[in-house]
Amino acid sequence: QVQLVESGGGLVQAGGSLRLSCVATGRIFSINTMGWYRQAPGKQRELVASITSLGSANYADSLKGRFTISRDNVKNTVYLQMSSLKPEDTAVYYCNARITSTTGWGTYWGQGAQVTVSS
Are 103 and 117 in contact (CB under 8 A)? Predict the structure, then answer.
């Protein structure tokens, strides 16, 4: 069974940095696009960044320059480096991946990692 397991969330002061990690486990053949979404209280889930298997990255316009997505294809892991954090970055951050496994192709989500930025 494929699972996405996130780590690295927490509480940080405004201006600080955090790095989120997400590892895909299970009987995986290949992973296509991996990405990060976030959902703040009372708001819809939104794309933060995504990255293809070849390393091509895409960012939400408002986050360019502060957030960096990367991945390690050997470790089946995607990272999100967040810098110059602002209180409005407070949200639950979800990992997402499109994976082909022994059970076929599917889109998977992590359990979510809380990021809280204090002012």
Answer: no
Of 98, 72, 93, nearest to 82 by C-alpha is: 93
pLDDT at residue 11 in the model: 97
- Measured distance CA(59)–CA(49) in Å, rounded: 4
- Residue 82: both structure tokens together: 């967040």
By three-state DSSP, how is residue 103 classified?
coil
Could you list the beta-strand ranges (E) of the chain: 3-7, 10-13, 18-25, 28-39, 46-51, 57-59, 67-72, 77-82, 91-101, 104-109, 113-118
**pLDDT band at residue 64, thresholds of 50, 70 and 90?**
confident
